[in-house]
Amino acid sequence: MSAWISGDSASAVICTKNWSPPFSDEFEFYIRSSGGVGLTLDDSGGDTIGKGTVATATGAWQHVMATYDGSMSSGGINIYIDGVQQAATVLLDAGVYNGLSDTTTPVTIGVRDGGGNSYDVNGSIDEVRISSVERTACWIGASYNNQAWPDKAEPCSCNIAASDAVNTLVTDAT
């Protein structure tokens, strides 16, 4: 998941797929109360994994991204700010996480539980993207650079899997 965010929100949802009972999310990508960025993943059995950064979102426009490798553990979550992987701590590692399971609930951006609560974003969110494949650090850095400075974008010289290359222009620097 990725997005461009700007604002002074803390404890705010970037995007979530919330389902019943309350506070059970298939996923939640959010700004932590400390100002860091977090990702939690919940399965239908109540098992949860999650990680969060200490690095904070500053209030200026920033690109935030979280990836998950399918390992069914918090160790498979990585978080990036402005194309750079951040040190992150395990927030949750409860039960045996079995993967995303609820596919009928809509994704919401900037609000939780229909909005009107303390988790609503006080700022701006742009270009939210959700992908079904894990992006590499090289891909994330190149993507950030291409979006932040499109007139100065440099070719990516990393290996890109065929599944990553769908609808993506990749130039090999070699």
Q: Could you explain the architecture of this structure?
A:
This protein is mainly beta and 174 residues long. It folds into 2 domains: 2-130, Jelly Rolls (Sandwich), CATH 2.60.120; 135-174, no CATH class. The chain is built from 1 helix and 11 strands; from the N terminus they run βββββββββββα. It has one helix spanning 137-148; strands at residues 2-7, 12-19, 24-31, 37-42, 48-53, 62-68, 77-81, 84-85, 88-94, 108-109, 123-129. The strands form 2 sheets. The chain has a 6-stranded antiparallel beta sheet with strand order 9-5-4-3-2-10, with no helix packed on it. A 5-stranded antiparallel beta sheet has the order 8-7-6-1-11, covered by helices on one side. The longest helix is centred in the C-terminal third of the chain and has 12 residues, at 137-148.
- Percent helix: under 10%
Number of helical stretches of at least 4 residues: 1
CATH architecture of the largest domain: Sandwich
Mean pLDDT: 79
From the alpha-carbon coordinates, what is the Rg to the nearest angstrom?
Answer: 16 Å
Q: Please indicate the count of domains.
A: 2
Low-confidence stretches: 164-174
In CATH terms, what is the fold-level topology of the largest domain? Answer: Jelly Rolls
Structural class assignment: mainly beta
Largest sheet: 6 strands, antiparallel
Strand content: 35-45%
Quaternary state of the chains: single chain
Shape: globular
Number of strands: 11
Topology order in helix (H) and strand (E) letters: EEEEEEEEEEEH
- Regarding CATH, which class of the largest domain? Mainly Beta
Distance between the termini: 29 Å
Strand order of the largest sheet: 9-5-4-3-2-10
